[in-house]
Amino acid sequence: MVAIAVALTAPWVTVFLTGAHLGIVAEVALSGVAILGASFLLAWGAETAEKDVPRAFAIAVLAVLAVAPEYAVDALYAWNAGAGGATAEACSALSPAQVAAQETPIAAACHDANLAIANMTGANRILIGIGWAGIAAFTVWRSFETRDPAVRNREGWLSDSVQLDEDIATEMTFLFLATAWAFAVPLGGGIDIIDTLFLVGLYAAYIGLVLKSDVEHSEHTVGVPAYLQGWSLPWRPLTVIALFVYSGAMIFVAVEPFAHGLEVIGIQNGIPEFFMIQWVAPLASESPELIVVAVLVNKARSTAGFNALISSKLNQWTLLIGTIAVVYSIALGAVGTLPFDARQAAEIWITAGQSYFALALLVNFEISIREAVVLFALFISQVLIEFAIIRGLLELPITSEELLFAYTAVYLVLGTALFVKRRDALRRLFGLAGDAVRTAVGRDPIHVEGAD
Q1: Which of 36, 122, 192, 421 has the most CB atoms less than 10 A away?
Q2: What pLDDT, in 10s, does the model give residues 387-412?
Q3: What single-letter DSSP state applies at residue 157?
């Protein structure tokens, strides 16, 4: 399996080393496949490390590394925006048409800043709309053969559900805080140093908390990680490091042609690069993680799979937002605010709204097929309507921005109604997270896991 993953990267290594030009479609395909192979190597390396570090920390690292391609694509646009001198003042002096047409170097830089936001929001919405919803449905479907103990079969229309481990309360609480902060990000006119300090600090606090956990040896690890975990010291950690270094290098050399090629393909087919970068590129870069989680579910390890998905959402909603501002500032040569236009502000709000609604669904530590269908339907309907508008297949009495605000309102109304209905579950969620903090500092917990 390791050889196959390495083989996926080999064609792009050849192209990169020889400097060959195969055409846009071929380069996008080869670089995309290389990113896919590299992501699997990263994921296996992180899961192997679970033998030597706390499981929660291993899952957190796995979540970060599995979406490493997404970080790389986003960082590319943030870097271009900073290097081109895109500032809030410079971008506000340009019209949306000038930015879209990239008439000047500054306009092109402002365009890249918007692309960074579009890519980030698309990745976050795909992770929930397809990842959370799809894996829930797949888990219940596979349970007829795997007998997954996390699946509860209930009477009623699409009432079967997946039960989550209450240990994920910490991740969900931190995700709730990050989501609340995200609603305020557009009000500042961009992502600034305050956003970075809060969001990166939030994730650092989370990592510091999970590092206090005990190292637990799993008997359910399978495949490549199980094989590598059987290696003795020092070969096991050296192998993990080798996987990280090789995969990181592959992603570094493959991400720029992959992202740029997608833009060109979109333009050639009459699709704005915003749509390509917001939906196609993140879907490709998220696919390794979704495949890995599907494999876990197939082995009746749905709890570990969902933990990884929720942890991925947390690091994307904190590290991804916070670090692109750092990349932008480094390229700019000064501490600055990554700017974005009104459309991207609306994209951030709908993404925060979706996160808020998804948390309301999981606050009682379960998700039913019916809830997964609603989550997916809201996501896919907005994407399809947007695509139909772009292609001129649908005319609405509202603008695309107003459509985003409408969906945001739906997410907020539904989420608030669920939180009110499940307010006892919400209190318990915060209580369990508080227990994790108390345990980390050496105090006794107050709540008992699994109690009513």
Answers
A1: 122
A2: 888 777 778 888 888 899 999 999 99
A3: T
DSSP state of 129: I
Tokens of residue 186, six digits: 């557009």
Q: Please tell me the predicted confidence (pLDDT) of residue 58.
A: 66
Which residues touch 1 (CB under 8 Å, ≥6 apart)? 223, 224
pLDDT at res. 451: 46
The two structure tokens encoding residue 438: 């108390």
Neighbouring residues of 452: CB distance < 8 A, sequence distance ≥ 6: none
Q: Cα dist. 316→82, 141, 178, 292 in Å?
A: 21, 28, 10, 17
**Cα–Cα distance for residue pair 385/393, rounded to 1 Å:** 9
Beta carbons of 345 and 182 less than 8 angstroms apart? no
Instruction: Establish whether the linkage from the previous residue to 11 is cis, with ω within 30° of 0.
Output: no
The tokens for 369 are 């097929």
Nearest to 87 by CA among 71, 107, 116: 107
Residue 4, strand partner residues:
none
User: Which pLDDT score, from 0 to 100, does residue 59 have?
Assistant: 67
Backbone angles phi, psi at 109, to 5 degrees: -65, -40
The pLDDT score that the predictor gives to residue 194 is 93
Residues of the chain short of pLDDT 70, as ranges, are 52-67, 69, 213-222, 259, 288, 299-301, 444-445, 447-452
Torsion, Cα 67 68 74 76, to 10 degrees, reads -160
Check: CB of residue 309 under 8 Å from CB of residue 131: yes
Closest CA to 164 of 293, 305, 54, 295: 305
Separation between Cα atoms, residue 256 and residue 16, nearest integer Å: 12
CA-CA distances (angstroms) from residue 452 to 171, 342, 368, 449? 21, 45, 20, 9
Instruction: For residue 329, give both structure tokens.
Output: 């500032």
Per-residue pLDDT at 452: 43
Q: Which helix (H) or strand (E) holds 366?
A: strand 366-368
Other CB atoms closer than 10 Å to residue 234's CB: what's the count?
9
Beta strand segments in 25-128, E: none
**Spatial distance between the Cα atoms of 187 and 340, rounded to a whole number of angstroms:** 11
Is residue 367 within a helix (H) or strand (E), and if so which, with residue range? strand 366-368
- What's the pTM value of the predicted model, to 2 decimals? 0.85
Distance CA(7)–CA(3), nearest Å, equals: 6
pLDDT of residue 377: 96
Domains of the chain with bracketed CATH: 55-223+272-440 (1.20.1420.30)
Tell me if residue 295 falls in helix, strand or coil.
helix
Alpha helices in 269-333 (DSSP H): 273-275, 281-298, 302-315, 321-332
